[in-house]
Structure formats: C-alpha cells, structure tokens
Amino acid sequence: MGLVDGVDLRGYLHERGRLPTADAVELVGQVLSALTVVHKAGVVHRDVKPANILIDTTGPGPARAMLTDFGIARLTQTPSMTRLSTTIGTPMYMAPELAEHTPAGPAADIYGAGVVLYELLAGQSPFVASNTISMIRAHAFDAPPPIDGIDARRHGSSMRSRRAGVRRSFGSDLFR
C-alpha cells in the first residue's frame, strides 16, 4: 500500500472552499472510476464521503482522488454481517433506501458520490438535520437547495423523478 501525501477531501474542501465545476467533476470522476473497479469485483463501499477520499497533490498535474476506508464494505453476493437494527454508513451521504435495511448495492455508492459532488460544488452538504432520522428523511423527500452558478431548471426533472421513485418505494410514512 502506498502512502498518500496530501489530505482527505474534507480537508481539501476546507482549505479551498467551493471547488470550480471542472475540478469537482474531475475528482468525483476519479472516485467513480475507483467505484467501477470495486463494483466489478463485487464489493460495495457503503460509506463514500469526503473523509474517505484522500487527495494527492504532490505529483505534476491536477490533484488525484483515492477512495479509502473499506472498513464497512461488503461483497454484493453475500449476506450482511450487520444486525438489521443497525444503520451502516454516514447518514449525511447515505442513500435513503439503506435506512430501510435494503441490501447495499452499487447504486448506494453512486448516490454517496453524488452527495460528495454537491458538497464540492456548493461548499456545503445538501441537507442539514438535527438527528439521523431527519437527515435520512431529508435525503428521501426533500430537494437540495440550488447551487449558485448551476442551472437548477436543467436538472430539476431528474430530481423530481428520483423523489417520486423514493416515495413509491417507501411510501409517504417513512420513519413516522
């Protein structure tokens, strides 16, 4: 295993603030490339978040993102070793379906990467909540605030479609 001379993406964001769109997309694209390899091997990370992405800025050229901390990863074709009453992952980046203890699949990692991208572009998380249940509900039912400089009208229909799909999957009484 090599040593990454740099910081995690959380520290990188803290040092630089909101990232330019091209930089944010490049870093998250590198994370998605890593997830492609991991998913082809039958592994789901289950905790994609800035603290688990190391940024190497020592080489020539742009920063390189490396996905780390597979401590709660699991093979997609094996039963989870976690109790059903335990939520695994970080709620701020967790796909809503995982709160219903649906087996984690690659889509959950992609969702987490999308939340990371939002945070890099907006300079803040899409949702703020006082507790885990409220955070998961926000991911399931609320639209994130628009990001300055990003045309929300262009992407609004996909967000409405996603929320409608979540409502069909969970019903309107999720976590009540």
TrEMBL record:
Basic residues composition-biased segments: 155-166
KW Transferase (keyword) present: yes
Keyword Glycoprotein: no
Organism placement in taxonomy: Bacteria, Bacillati, Actinomycetota, Actinomycetes, Frankiales
Keywords: ATP-binding, Kinase, Nucleotide-binding, Serine/threonine-protein kinase, Transferase
Species: Candidatus Protofrankia californiensis
EC number of this enzyme: 2.7.11.17
Protein kinase domain mapped to chain residues: 1-176
Protein known as: Serine/threonine protein kinase with PASTA sensor(S)
InterPro entries xref list: Aur-like, Kinase-like_dom_sf, Prot_kinase_dom, Ser/Thr_kinase_AS
Region (Disordered) location: 146-176
One Gene Ontology term of the molecular function aspect: calcium/calmodulin-dependent protein kinase activity
